[in-house]
Amino acid sequence: MQLLYLFIREKDLLSQYIPHFHTIEKIINHIESNFTKTYSVEELARMAGLSPSHFRLLFKRVTGFSVTQYQINMKINKAKDLLISGACNVSEAAYLLGFNNIYYFSRLFKKNTGVNPSDYLKGYGS
Predict the structure, then answer these.
(1) Which domains does the chain show, CATH number per domain?
(2) Dihedral angle at the C-alpha atoms of 14, 40, 78, 99, nearest 10 degrees?
(3) Mind listing the pLDDT tens digit for each residue in 3-41?
């Protein structure tokens, strides 16, 4: 309960001190709801009604990641869930997450996790 309280308190503080916090939060929800698509900074900034440079700055301040890195991390985490659950194999996971090139997906996965995506099929994440 104390961790939940601290998380909520920190979020409230961020929303008070970061302009457009709720706008960025809506964009994050949009990205996560449409995880098969990869958005450019320009697209997201236009959705938020902000300039790309201002959007980039605010997004990093809220999430701690660049727009690109945030999308990659989100996709890799979703891939882990799909692979651990056994819902699909590596090729299917890559395709479901919007990757057209399985080799690129595998390299990105390994770069971000330190292991191959096929290792998750073997129960690595369990």
Answers:
(1) 2-64 (no CATH), 71-121 (1.10.10.60)
(2) -170
(3) 554 444 455 545 545 667 889 999 999 999 999 999 999
